Amino acid sequence: LDAIEDSRDQKLDNIASWIDNNNADLDWLTKRIKELQEKKKFLTNQNHNLMTYLTDAIDDAGFKKMRTETHLLSVRNFKASTVIDDVKKLPEAFVETKTVSSPDKTAIYKAIKAGQEVPGAYLKNNRRTVIK
Fold it and tell me: What is the mean pLDDT of residues 89-113?
């Protein structure tokens, strides 16, 4: 950027326009990512439902294996899934209690702003230019 031989005002204006364009691209990409995630979830759920239907159809026919023109279908038993209907009804022996600790950034910020030294933490300046 320093090598560009425009006036300072023109250079800064062009950079601001570049940032505007990037922000527009980011907005579009964010929307597109959300659409793709929704499509992925839809297809995953659809495949699950189709697989359940396929397995039920083979089971109802009384077969363990079926051959079609293009596929060999066989029903297998996999490891059973554990389903928890109501956590409150579980005996304590089957409930794991976890304690999660995390720093209180608000309290640390206030302490440092008040002049207190907090080992292991510091305030980092957050300077940006506002483009309107």
Answer: 91
